[in-house]
TrEMBL record:
Segments for region (Disordered): 1-53, 168-192
Biased composition range(s): Basic and acidic residues: 23-33
Organism whose genome encodes this protein: Reyranella soli
Protein name: Uncharacterized protein
Length: 192
């Protein structure tokens, strides 16, 4: 890379680009994935203003579970205990609960990094939500009507994510984003 061009990359056509482009969807996606921190770049919120004065949109960044635990030795954890189910139903239920909680956290006015994972270490299926900021854990716990966990526990809050709680949280989180089919060539579309 040429001297003095550390912050400039080449786009697909080979022309240099910087982060100052108008707010296209590609630039928004790029802004979410690029870090505003000189450190490891995991889980930092970004600010996006698109020509609208006095409007600031801050998005809470989702980090990997191991990355968040490495950066914050004592994260603020909210535990969603899942009811017992059998076999394949249990796996799909845990995955859908995890996606629901990610949507919920993104919908609520949270500011720090977060991570979500499914755990079976306690002998029960749980979805663990770890937060960088204690206020973020408080906001999510209030929305889920979670109770304070015992002082000796690693978690700050816990609640049971049964069907009733799932319906309530789905109303707050909103519907899942539709799945997009990958683009196909006309020939591939005709073949299938």
């Amino acid at each position: 890379m040429a001297k003095g061009t550390e912050g400039i990359a080449d786009d697909a056509e080979g022309s240099p680009r910087t982060g100052s482009a108008k707010g296209t969807r590609e630039d928004e996606t790029r802004s979410r994935s690029e870090s505003t921190s000189p450190s490891d770049g995991v889980g930092y919120p970004y600010d996006k203003t698109q020509g609208r004065p006095n409007e600031r949109v801050t998005m809470m960044a989702k980090a990997g579970w191991c990355d968040l635990l490495a950066r914050f030795l004592e994260p603020h954890i909210v535990v969603a205990a899942l009811p017992d189910l059998t076999g394949e139903e249990s796996v799909s239920n845990a995955q859908s609960a995890q996606r629901l909680l990610v949507r919920l956290v993104r919908k609520l006015p949270t500011a720090g990094a977060f991570a979500v994972t499914v755990s079976r270490q306690s002998g029960k299926r749980e979805v663990l939500c770890a937060f960088e900021e204690s206020d973020d854990a408080d906001i999510v716990a209030k929305a889920a009507k979670a109770t304070k966990a015992p002082v000796s526990a690693r978690a700050r809050y816990s609640f049971v994510l049964d069907e009733k709680a799932e319906r309530k949280l789905s109303k707050i989180a909103g519907p899942p984003e539709p799945h997009r089919r990958p683009r196909t060539t006309p020939y591939e579309g005709w073949r299938s």
